[in-house]
């Protein structure tokens, strides 16, 4: 596949091919651990994916055959967060999690190796996870002085159930791709050589379907769990659809033409 670079970054690769935007953490030396700068770059790429109408599906992965992402880079962990080039401690991976959830396009985690700690949470918040047979999953927070009690816990519990989520966090053990499949943590496991082909197949399958339908389904699935923020997302989509109707246009036109709106001719569905 001839992936073409969308934009050059320092710590990630950001590429495009036939409707797919691919974001790759490019720090294999550290098992693709993220610094605040990696995360800032991923957020920027995700916003571009949201804005670019040529991108229908987003794929998240890590460089190489060892790791998807090993979480926050422990070398730059400070007392109030992870420190990037600007010297400010941050936990901006939480912003990335929210962007993954709210982008109105499917996001696939292409898990090519270790998905550990904050890196595990990143695959959890993606809409779909496709793993290679060598992938390994787990949380380490309580072992290394950290935790993610947000999506990393509550959404994980929605995916694998309360007992399993507590086991994953309390014991900090590692799970094989096959075990992840059995607990519903990933959608599919394939040999490493097939990982990208399979991921592209899933993306192409989704691209055959109505983008608006997928968008509404994603917003609806989020809304059930995300409280007012989830309802806002679903409601925002409803507003967008409403604006596409003549009925909504009549209201705006009447205001600009300084007349009373006439909504009488629009259907009132049962
Ligand atoms: C990922 C894992 C299991 C891989 O093990 P292995 O044996 O394949 O590799 P190794 O030798 O541990 O790692 C290779 C090199 O990558 C560095 C290592 O230090 C090592 O460097 P050298 O010894 O060659 O110099 N490396 C790996 N992960 C790193 C990391 N996260 N930060 C900095 N350097 C890293 C194994 O490496 C592992 O367990 N890694 C640590 C996983 C971890 O605990 N991550 C942080 C969890 S907390 C978190 O991510 C988080 C959160 O809980 C809440 C909010 C935000 C973040």
Helix content: 40-55%
* Oligomer kind: single chain
Ligand list: Salicylyl CoA
* Mean pLDDT level: 98
DSSP summary: helix tally: 11
Termini, distance in Å? 50 Å
Percent strand equals 15-25%
Function: Converts o-succinylbenzoyl-CoA (OSB-CoA) to 1,4-dihydroxy-2-naphthoyl-CoA (DHNA-CoA).
Catalytic activity: 2-succinylbenzoyl-CoA + H(+) = 1,4-dihydroxy-2-naphthoyl-CoA + H2O
EC number: 4.1.3.36
Cofactor: hydrogencarbonate
Fold and architecture overview:
This protein has 270 residues and is of the alpha/beta class. Strand 3, helix 1 and strand 4 form a beta-alpha-beta unit. The model has no long low-confidence stretch (mean pLDDT 98). The structure holds Salicylyl CoA. Its cofactor is hydrogencarbonate. Pathway: Quinol/quinone metabolism; 1,4-dihydroxy-2-naphthoate biosynthesis; 1,4-dihydroxy-2-naphthoate from chorismate: step 6/7; Quinol/quinone metabolism; menaquinone biosynthesis. Its EC number is 4.1.3.36. Keywords: Lyase, Menaquinone biosynthesis.
């Amino acid at each position: 596949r001839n992936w073409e670079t969308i934009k050059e970054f320092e710590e990630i690769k950001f590429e495009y091919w036939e409707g797919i935007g691919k974001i790759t953490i490019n720090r294999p030396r550290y098992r693709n651990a993220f610094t605040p700068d990696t995360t800032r770059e991923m957020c920027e790429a995700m916003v571009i994916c949201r804005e670019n109408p040529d991108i229908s599906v987003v794929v998240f992965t890590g460089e190489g055959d060892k790791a998807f992402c090993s979480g926050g880079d422990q070398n730059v962990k400070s007392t109030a967060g992870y420190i990037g080039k600007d010297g400010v401690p941050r936990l901006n991976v939480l912003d990335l999690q929210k962007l993954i959830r709210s982008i109105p396009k499917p996001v696939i985690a292409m898990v090519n190796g270790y998905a550990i700690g904050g890196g595990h949470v990143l695959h959890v918040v993606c809409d779909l996870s496709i793993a290679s047979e060598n992938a390994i999953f787990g949380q380490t927070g309580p072992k290394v002085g950290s935790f993610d009690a947000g999506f990393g816990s509550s959404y994980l519990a929605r995916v694998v159930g309360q007992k399993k989520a507590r086991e994953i966090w309390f014991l900090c053990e590692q799970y094989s791709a096959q075990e992840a499949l059995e607990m519903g943590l990933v959608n599919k496991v394939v040999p490493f050589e097939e990982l990208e082909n399979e991921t592209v197949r899933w993306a192409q399958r989704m691209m055959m379907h109505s983008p608006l339908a997928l968008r509404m389904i994603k917003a609806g699935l989020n809304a059930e769990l995300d409280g007012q923020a989830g309802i806002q997302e679903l409601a925002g989509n409803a507003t967008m659809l409403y604006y596409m109707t003549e009925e909504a246009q009549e209201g705006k036109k009447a205001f600009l033409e300084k007349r009373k709106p006439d909504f009488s001719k629009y259907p009132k569905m049962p």
